[in-house]
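REVIEWER CHECKLIST
Item 1: Sequence provided? yes
Item 2: Single chain? yes
Item 3: Sequence as submitted:
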Amino acid sequence: MSDLAVSGGTANRSGGTGKLEGQLEQHRVELTGYCYRMLGSAFEAEDAVQDTLVRAWRSVDRFEGRSALRSWLYRIATNVCFDMLNGRRRRALPMDLAPSKSPDAPVGSPRPENTWIQPIPDGRVLPAADDPADVAVSRESVRLAFVAALQYLPRRQRAVLILREVLSWRAGEVAELLGTTVASVNSALQRARATLAASDTATTDPVQPADDEQRELLARYVDAFERFDIESLVALLHEDATHSMPPFEIWLRGRADIRKWWLGPGSGCRGSRLVPTVANGLPAFGQYRSNGPEGGYYPFSLQVLEVSEGRIVGLKNFLETTGTLFPLFGLPAQPEG
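Item 4: Structure as written out by the authors:
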């Protein structure tokens, strides 16, 4: 490998491989966020970023420094994502695929992993920022509903919207990255905005930062869930709250149906333990089901909660079916205590 370093937007031979690795690595989190929004999969995003950094390393001798290192990496990452999206179906949430079902309806068979938008830990995609406004924008741009809405866009429109609206690139910069014109970029952005405006994400409340009221609500939720006090749980839900369980297509809407589910098919969650984490800018919990008389617990699902005006409006349970979800979030094999 070449003994090159990249400094001040140009490649030179003054540094060693360790310095170059460090300079490339500095961009991993923001590139992962970009690739995650493009692909809708935590694991595919990490694969795409790794491929991007390897390609950058191998071709840094040909980097002419006409653009900044960051822009060059985004160009490589965009091409990697375009290749991965080629000929592939879009990822979705259960709400995107079928109407809500009765809690008495058969659960059905699990759909393949590549059907679904996947959750991702905040630390993998949200760069550290001091400005609360920047933090809010970053969190908003990785929420599950927004990432799912992005998947409706053709890949070039998707890239344009993310680069212009989320990352605040200028139209000329995007045009240069995509090898097109400013007029084409502006046209693609207009079409992408129109598609998103027609989606459910347009009517979803913005993600709100945690405050004392939200922390109290989450504490009440944990207490009620671990005691499996159904009436207390239902009291925390918005009237039109939704409940979904990827990899199954079935999802529920409304307190009455969710209550009926918890009293019926969902009663196997009795005796569970919850361990807090964060996912997609939202509060989340690793749910561990009880092994029953045998003792102990096993990883069951990652619960991602959407909260608005003091109530839970969405509960997305991503079932741990592959043994990879809990490790991704750094969740232990067993809850403590």
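Item 5: Key structural point noted by reviewer: The two ends are 49 Å apart (CA to CA).
Item 6: Recommendation: ____
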